[in-house]
């Protein structure tokens, strides 16, 4: 994925994938935020695998490839994943 590609974050702000890559490793998961089947399982399992591995310096970057997803569908998912991660490492 080109680091200069223009995307929108969960708040609707323009971001580039490169904005999320820092000195540590990152895992990228593609899916649909409104999907409650395979995509939801993929996001959940990726987060759980990172948490169970003990890898605390990874960034999990979820990107929706559904053109109908919006900041309104992304924000609740982001909050739920942050809450799940925080229960494990906060």
Features:
2 helices; alpha+beta; two-stranded antiparallel ribbon; two-stranded parallel ribbon; 90 residues
Summarize the structure in short:
With 90 residues, the protein is α+β, with helices and mostly antiparallel strands. It has 2 helices and 4 strands. The chain is globular.
Describe this entry's structure for a reader.
It contains 2 helices and 4 strands, in the order βββαβα. It is an alpha+beta fold and 90 residues long. The strands form 2 sheets. The protein has a two-stranded antiparallel ribbon with strand order 1-2. A two-stranded parallel sheet has the order 3-4. Helix 1 (38-53) packs parallel to helix 2. The radius of gyration is 13 Å and the shape is globular. The chain starts with 6 loop residues before the first strand and ends with a helix.
SS element count, helices = 2
Query: Biggest sheet, open or closed, and with what strands and sense?
Result: 2 strands, antiparallel
Q: Gyration radius, to the nearest Å?
A: 13 Å
Task: Report the span from N to C terminus.
Answer: 31 Å
* Chain oligomer state: single chain
Task: Count every beta strand, where a strand is a DSSP E run of 2 or more residues.
Answer: 4
Order of strands, main sheet, comes to: 1-2
Q: Work out the helicity level.
A: 25-40%
Helix-and-strand structural type? alpha+beta
Estimate the mean pLDDT confidence: 81
Shape: globular
Low-confidence stretches: none
Strand content: 15-25%
Q: List SSEs in N-to-C order.
A: EEEHEH
């Amino acid at each position: 994925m080109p680091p200069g590609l223009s995307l929108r974050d969960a708040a609707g702000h323009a971001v580039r994938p490169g904005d999320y890559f820092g000195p540590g490793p990152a895992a990228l998961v593609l899916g649909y935020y409104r999907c409650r089947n395979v995509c939801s399982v993929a996001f959940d399992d990726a987060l759980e695998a990172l948490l169970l591995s003990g890898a605390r310096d990874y960034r999990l970057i979820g990107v929706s490839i559904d053109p109908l997803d919006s900041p309104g569908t992304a924000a609740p998912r982001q909050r739920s994943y942050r809450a799940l991660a925080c229960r494990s490492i906060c």
